[in-house]
């Protein structure tokens, strides 16, 4: 549907999954599915996805880059003050 549009949008404006869903007026799960497919497709293109992983703002725990949505709780301190992962697309060097 709009994967190419997602790519162009993320080149100009790094965003979280919820920001993208809000911009495109769709459910975050739909955006997540398309985003995962786009990330796989980028392997064959001159672009790469740069993901700033979710981080616990209480203890500093850094989640795995595969998590595109915001986790509910930190496994280290059980806190819920977690920053969302941010995705951007840039050209390979």
Secondary-structure blueprint:
Blueprint: H1 3-12, H2 17-24, H3 28-41, E1 47-52, E2 55-56, E3 82-83, E4 86-91
Strand order in the sheet with the most strands: 1-4
Please outline the major beta sheet. 2 strands, antiparallel
Overall SS class = alpha+beta
Oligomeric status of the shown chains? single chain
Instruction: Note the gap between the termini.
Output: 28 Å
Order of helices and strands: HHHEEEE
Shape: globular
Low-pLDDT stretches: none
Report mean pLDDT, rounded to a whole number: 90
What value does the Rg take, in angstroms? 14 Å
Describe the structure.
The model has no long low-confidence stretch (mean pLDDT 90). The chain has helices at 3-12, 17-24, 28-41; strands at residues 47-52, 55-56, 82-83, 86-91. The protein is built from 3 helices and 4 strands; from the N terminus they run αααββββ. It starts with a helix and ends with a strand. The chain has a two-stranded antiparallel ribbon. Helix content is 34%, strand content 17%. Helix 1 crosses helix 3 (28-41) and helix 2 (17-24) crosses helix 3 (28-41). With 93 residues, the protein is of the alpha+beta class.
Quickly describe the structure.
The protein has 93 residues and is an alpha+beta fold. It is 34% helix and 17% strand.
Provide tags for this entry.
single chain; about 90 residues; alpha+beta; two-stranded antiparallel ribbon; globular
